[in-house]
Amino acid sequence: MLKNLLFKSNTPRWAIFILDLGIVFFSVVMAYMLRFNFSIPDSEIPLIKYALPVILIVRTISFFIGKPYAAYIRYTSVDDAKKIIVFAFSSSIIISLTNVLSYKIDEIFIIPFSIIILEFLLTTFLMIGSRTFFKMAYDGYRNPSEGKTPILIFGAGEAGMIAKRAIDKDVKSSFNVIGFIDDDKQKAKRRLENKPIFHSKELEKILNDKNISHVIISIQKISKSRLNEIIKICLNNNVQILNVPEASKWINGELSLKQMRKVRIEDLLGRESIKLSESKIKTQLKGKIILVTGAAGSIGSEIVRQLIKYSPKKVLLIDQAESALYELEMELRTIKGGESTEIIISDICNMKRMDKVFQTFQPEVVFHAAAYKHVPLMENNPSEAIQTNVMGSKTLADLSNHYGVKTFVMISTDKAVNPTNIMGASKRIAEIYIQSLNQKSQTTFITTRFGNVLGSNGSVIPLFKKQIEKGGPITVTDPNITRYFMTIPEACQLVLEAGSAGKGGEIFIFDMGKSVKIKDLASEMIKLSGLEEGKDIQIVYTGLRPGEKLYEELLNDKENTLKTHHPDIMIAKVKEYNYEEIKPKVDLLIASIDKDDITFVSQMKSIVPEYISNNSKYELLDNEKA
């Protein structure tokens, strides 16, 4: 019956009220016993019959006012304990005043002040202690540790303590926290939440000795390099990793187990947070009308999300992907600043429609992210690559020049360097045209060039995730193929930074870090999924696709770089083309779209001499040239 009263239902208020009065009665008796060494003098005994009712009456009144019995005893918090102390102390003051009043009337203290002090201490200690005991007993009853999976929390700070409490509070949790681990040597061999703290140098040993299945990383500010070290140790020992989100993302300021997510491959490949020239970017963007092409894509949509933080007057979102634009519009409605956006469905190759957009809205800044980027698809559909990547870019650049756009930023790719495919060559031609147009225009034309973006549409990350979910196999074109990677937010932050710093005509390249073997990337994703390569899932090599090369480059052999104000941004020193010379060639290329593929691919190679096809039918043109 007692178990049912305390654990299986909400304990009634009257039960807690009676318990508290019992504690007060016991505290009074114990106070007298302690004060007089368990031998109460005969002179004090007659006074107890007055003292006990006074204390009980005053405490009862304080209970009715403070209502400590109204709180859920099983969820007792620090605030509840503070409330008990405040009202117990206040009622002890009233008891003392009653005592002084009795002395003034009968010249006798009904209650010795030492008794009042002892009773206060005992009452507060027992009331708080009883609640804590029942809370611990309830937690143990609802969430027993027996049979649960042993886990470690990395981080023995406040965030680690909150993470443990969130796990303990979740009755559906299958985790049992056996301890904390921390880089701070001073915390080692101490205890937190009654659990031992180990030093991080013992991590691998503890993982094996304690049969740990999961490690929860609960450090709010941890360097990417240190995070990678921890993750790799865990993965090498077949231990899964969960990450506690930033405190700002906790729901209503409270952390729950459901918010702890698995570490993603982006966490491994991401780098230290990028420091931006916020004031300079804000000066460029605040109060401006900004046009973003390819706004529904992974890069374009993230640029939009970051732009609205800088209080632009209006952001025009242009894309021909209706459904994706609709989804983005719904998202932006929930974001502060989202009301400044306007959706425009259009193909950037539609000259009349784009001219109407520029004439109507008079944009001051353009971020051009629209492009076809899938290498094998463009290799088989070269006319579409020319139409969108070259003609579309030329259309936007010409309109920006005509309508006096202040800054035009084009998003290019590392595949434009020594291109081996249609897609890369088409982007290089767009770079050349835009850079040459800068020579005769009042518009500042800037190009940004970077490698693969983690999680973007068409990147290997979503593909590998789908293949893992289906049980494999994971398809990799070649065991030696490598790529540079950058997260979407990183790439877009650097685009904004470069856009604010450019003076015109530059091709900015970003520090992409080290190139990554795609095979290693696939292996890491298998481990992060809790699977074993070769046993649970296979990696299959399919051979290079048309136009694909093993290694991407950020510069060609004839290029070098100049430093900028930002350590992650450099300026590529590239061959510059004369506008009067390049425009007729680009116009001729666009006019040849309806001709046979060989004809206009040959023209592309004449514009970009370093374009040498690889694993493609267009290699015959290189052979003829040779």
In short:
With 626 residues, the protein is an alpha/beta fold. The chain is 47% helix and 15% strand.
Describe the structure.
There is one protein chain. The protein has 626 residues and is an alpha/beta fold. It has three domains: 2-142, no CATH class; 149-263, NAD(P)-binding Rossmann-like Domain (Rossmann fold), CATH 3.40.50.720; 278-452 and 485-512 and 554-595, 3-Layer(aba) Sandwich (Rossmann fold). 47% of the residues lie in helices and 15% in strands. The protein contains 22 helices and 22 strands. Strands 10-9-8-11-12-13-18-22-21 form a nine-stranded mixed sheet, sandwiched between helices. A seven-stranded mixed sheet has the order 3-4-2-1-5-6-7, sandwiched between helices. A hairpin with a 2-residue loop joins strand 3 (191-192) and strand 4 (195-199). Helix 2 (13-35) packs antiparallel against helix 3 (45-66), helix 3 (45-66) packs across helix 4 and helix 17 (460-469) crosses helix 19. The longest helix is centred in the N-terminal third of the chain and has 30 residues, at 113-142. The N and C termini lie far apart (94 Å). The relative contact order is 0.07. The mean pLDDT is 81.
Please identify the structural class as seen in this structure. alpha/beta
Give the overall average pLDDT: 81
- Poorly predicted spans: none
Overall structural domain count: 3
Task: Report the C-alpha radius of gyration, rounded.
Answer: 35 Å
Strand content: 15-25%
By oligomeric state, this entry counts as single chain
Main sheet attributes: strand count, strand direction, barrel closure:
9 strands, mixed
